[in-house]
UniProtKB/TrEMBL annotation, chain A:
GO biological process terms on file: intracellular protein transport; vesicle-mediated transport
Protein name according to UniProt: AP complex subunit beta
One term under GO cellular component: cytoplasmic vesicle
Membrane topology: Peripheral membrane protein
Bias (Low complexity): 599-612
Organism: Gallus gallus (Chicken)
Keyword rRNA-binding: no
Clathrin adaptor alpha/beta/gamma-adaptin appendage Ig-like subdomain domain span: 708-818
Subcellular location: Endomembrane system
Keyword terms of this UniProt record: Acetylation, Membrane, Protein transport, Transport
One Pfam family it belongs to: B2-adapt-app_C
Gene Ontology molecular function: clathrin binding
Main location: membrane
Automatic annotation (TrEMBL), chain B:
Gene, per the UniProt record: AP4M1
GO CC aspect terms: AP-4 adaptor complex; clathrin adaptor complex; clathrin-coated pit; cytoplasmic vesicle; cytosol; early endosome; trans-Golgi network
Main location: other
Protein name: AP-4 complex subunit mu-1
Protein's job: Component of the adaptor protein complex 4 (AP-4). Adaptor protein complexes are vesicle coat components involved both in vesicle formation and cargo selection. They control the vesicular transport of proteins in different trafficking pathways. AP-4 forms a non clathrin-associated coat on vesicles departing the trans-Golgi network (TGN) and may be involved in the targeting of proteins from the trans-Golgi network (TGN) to the endosomal-lysosomal system.
Amino acid sequence: MTDSKYFTTTKKGEIFELKAELNSDKKEKKKEAVKKVIASMTVGKDVSALFPDVVNCMQTDNLELKKLVYLYLMNYAKSQPDMAIMAVNTFVKDCEDPNPLIRALAVRTMGCIRVDKITEYLCEPLRKCLKDEDPYVRKTAAVCVAKLHDINAQLVEDQGFLDTLKDLISDSNPMVVANAVAALSEIAESHPSSNLLDLNPQSINKLLTALNECTEWGQIFILDCLANYMPKDDREAQSICERVTPRLSHANSAVVLSAVKVLMKFMEMLSKDLDYYGTLLKKLAPPLVTLLSAEPELQYVALRNINLIVQKRPEILKHEMKVFFVKYNDPIYVKLEKLDIMIRLASQANIAQVLAELKEYATEVDVDFVRKAVRAIGRCAIKVEQSAERCVSTLLDLIQTKVNYVVQEAIVVIKDIFRKYPNKYESVIATLCENLDSLDEPEARAAMIWIVGEYAERIDNADELLESFLEGFHDESTQVQLQLLTAIVKLFLKKPTETQELVQQVLSLATQDSDNPDLRDRGYIYWRLLSTDPVAAKEVVLAEKPLISEETDLIEPTLLDELICYIGTLASVYHKPPSAFVEGSRGVVHKSLPPRTGSSESAESPDAAPSAGQAAEQPAVIPAQGDLLGDLLNLDLGPPVSGPPLAASSVQMGAVDLLGGGLDSLMGGSGFTAPGPAAPAAMGAPLGSGLGDLFDLTGGVGTLSGSYVAPKTVWLPAMKAKGLEISGTFSRQVGSICMDLVLTNKALQVMSDFAIQFNRNSFGLAPAAPLQVHAPLAPNQSVEISLPLNTVGSVMKMDPLNNLQVAVKNNIDVFYFSTLYPLHILFVEDGKMERQMFLATWKDIPNENEAQFQIKDCSLNADAVSSKLQGSNIFTIAKRNVEGQDMLYQSLKLTNGIWVLAELRIQPSNPSFTDLELSLKCRAPEVSQYVYQAYDAILKN
Amino acid sequence: MISQLFILSSKGDRLVYRNFRGDGGDDVTDAFYRAVTSLPGDQAPVFMAREGQHFVHVRHGGLYVGATTTADTSPFVLVEFLNRLVTLLREHCGTLSEKSVSVNVALVQELLGEMVDFGYVQTTATEVLRSATHGEPETTKAFSLLDLRSVGLFGAETQQSRVAPGSVTNRPVLPPRGEQGGRREVFVDVVERLTVVIAANGTPLKVDVQGEIRLKSFVPGACELRMGLTEELSVGTEEQCGYGRLPLAAVAFHSSVDLEEFEQERVLRVTPGPGEVTLMRYQLAEDVAVPLPFRLLPSVEWEPAGRLRIHLKLRCDLPPKNHAINVVLQLPLPREASSLAQELSSPEQTAELQGGGRSLRWAIPRCQGGAQLGAVFRVQLPPTPPLGLGPAALTFELPALTVSGLRLRWLRLSAPPGAPPGPPQRWVRHLTHSDSYVVRL
């Protein structure tokens, strides 16, 4: 017969023909017809129309035919559940068949038919089959429980199948045990808390016995189950290890790896001083090495796992370097993995050998592999210090080949070597510069530019070289542009005289002609640094860079520990924990290594395994490429920036403004005090604001900064007070008002016995504590005092309203002065009015009480205004945008309970400044003037 | 565990498909084919996570044999199983090809049903499957000329005196039911793979010999097989290795091998059912001096205008009665060569440029032990600075020879009671082939 007859297209006529053949009386013809149906089904053709005809063939004593029909049923039952019911009787009957093959087949097939009605009929036959006399039937039934659980977990529990399954762990047939373990393990996964497998020393013993007898695949189920067991002490761990070790010489690599997994995990519990530990360690190497002679696909999987193992326990394979040497006929993916492991195993002892290999690889044909090999040479140099010199000379040899991609890779890694061993190999720069023209890859260009910039003082024509790159600035990739900018700034700082033009050119290219925000911002930073303080710029830009250390791509230790637990799962191939790639319902249980028993070991980290080569390597992971570009930015942004600079309310630190306001604000900013302890000042505000939070647009930007504090001014000059000079200001911190004073003794004699008193004033301000100057004030000495105030003193309306008359006494005399306090020190933290209340109050206050003011040339936008004012307890209740102008509605309350309502209209006057129009309404209109002054002071500073 | 299993033709057509766990869509084979054909060159194809699925596959005979799986499955189980499946399909269908698989779909499906239940591998043992399956294989006509994979191991020209008939092993191991006999034959192959790196000065940097003893039985029923190995064999390094010893660094045996007589007499005993099984895998200890089959003596001269004159002398150091076949030398060139002129010592040899002129290929069909072959090549390269030639790589097969010296001394078969009279035909073959034989220049 010919094979083509199965594969002609199923036209209508053909289905018809098959139908006829299926209903034929001749057994042979029937069987051939079913085979044809299966063939069509397998290649994806729809033959579901033949369902009744195929099911009719089910009652047969020909086992082959029966199998084929069952296969058909499994495939189509789900789409034709009603018709599938017709098959149930045959299934149930077959489960009682004297032939164990047929019993097993029936129960196996029924479990695969995911139709609820059929599942119901499955329970009784399954119960019988679980206790069948034939092990083949029992092992099939064990898996069937897992199938049923997948369809209907509740049913399995209700019917008590789980207990029967547990009993099967003690079955006399090892294959039944293995399948029961597999089924229980799967079911246990969906019930993480239940103690289904209930592993204890007795059951472990049974499993270990079955391990010696069952098939290779059954051994894997049992080993994988063992890996989840946590031995109670190191003695038990050792005895399990001893019984698992023989599996290491199994021919099936899956058995070997499952055994390795168990051993790696239980080894964690063994003391390293034990002789057995060393023996076991030695036994792990040969099976791993043997895996490397298998098919390339297996080799690949093995290499991915070995890669993890050598990071965790380099001592296992440290003498096996040679097996990782690349064979010329390895597939490329195997080659790349081997290369990676070679570098991980590289040590002083074997570096010469490794380097010789790598150099050979660099002359191979495959470009990807050659690149990797050149990079590997660089990684060796960084990893093994003693080899650095040899690596560099190898790289130079490779550069001499002038093969384009080899040269470029070599330059990239030499840059890394410079960063690891500064001032050691710079003599090679001349050779590198010769190859400037051949570089066409961004990474290599960037690396070369970095080198030129970093060593500008040693390269006579550095300016010419960089200038030549600058010509095509806009065609370069961002990486190169950023590097070029930095390099030219470095050059400028080293040779300022002849390169001024160049630096201006690059700064304007970066800041004005570029759309890339990274480039532009870095340009601005340099520009401002250079124009403000070239000395500081030098310190920042030419600062000593941290050395890059060790390998760049070690897996982070905690992840590595997790991955070690997943050896022999897909996670070990992807090098990602399952949580990173598992989708769907199956829960991911995070696994961890067991703690080591034995007290002397407990404090030791697992990484400190006794290895000569790696002992000194604490994995300091620094990303190689990004790091280089990022070094300047990291340094520049050293001082922490507390929030968006423009909205930084009253915090005025020079560093912050680097990013924002411009150079002029740097100058202006220096006069202000940074309110360090004032930070929690406004903490009370959100508490008091209550429901009004809904309208709290400023969202707490300003809440962490304190109320605005004016600079100190001289209140009492020395000449008027016999040598005592008093300067001061007022502040409000955490709801309390303070008078911050500086007393300076400009006389020739010591001053002591200070005291202070206030005259009656408009808001009843009075000292809350006596003026405390602890030691006598010596000549030319100053003392800073913060005097707490309250508002419970006597009240008398003053003119101007905020006038305060003060008397200060010392051992010499009594002195009088008066000062004006800013009204905002009286704005209380619960000054936020509810919106409805605001509207009602606004209407209620007569219009003649409204006062209008102008605040000119404010450099803030609405949000910044709002947050800045909130720092001083002026609360924004609502914000509206009317005809392109922002309107803020605000409220504040004075200590004496007077509410002031404000409407602030923000009009853009020119691009960078706005004019504010302030309307204040208050039942006591005389305060408006002073409130306006407070607004003005806060917003202008 | 295995969720779905499939075999696709090289063009992505579905030949076999089986869904073991009832999850996942039926379009998975299309998703797989899309993923495998669009894979970037620097990524390993073995495992792929695509469109929410994890794919694993191996390629054999141009077919994709693949599976989808869940994340917590052992990748070794998957790859081992797929490789076993391929072996089993060869045993049952004779060869593995698009044609043989599609003709035997029903049998393959029956096998899969016994091998895997709910994604758990149950068995891959031929004799177990034999007793549990009932389908009969449909044989396809042998087309061994096209099927390159069958050359070399089973059915190659291997032993001078007793040559097994060509493509004899490319038939199902199981004779049709009811027909007693067929040809009752047992093949035992000792196959070694040689990995060698020779430095530019001629000293060997690395010599690595891996070997395996494989058994393929066409004898129905169980018969006990005993084979004696070279007595000089020693395992492990703890034993003192005197002169003439043959130390092995690592040995692994198949679980069915009885080692009772191995320690004392180096005798393996096994009772195989029909089918193929690897009885023993071994690795020669590193410090053993293995006679290298080939030496390469190159001399390279740079002539003006980018012309490169390469004079290669290849010396075959095998004993005179042995020979090497299918010898191919690959020499990477530093630049794309534009033309090649050659002088070869015999007409059956050929030489050509490959890979767009990036490498030179010199093929020698047969080379007797002790022979020395010379060749002169002139290649035209772009005028750039001179640069070392890449390492030369040799591939070859050495029939009737194991470089380690491990041999089967004798092979005895005791037929089970009730077997037809006359001993089954026994074939013992030794073969070494190069895995990676690199000579640096």
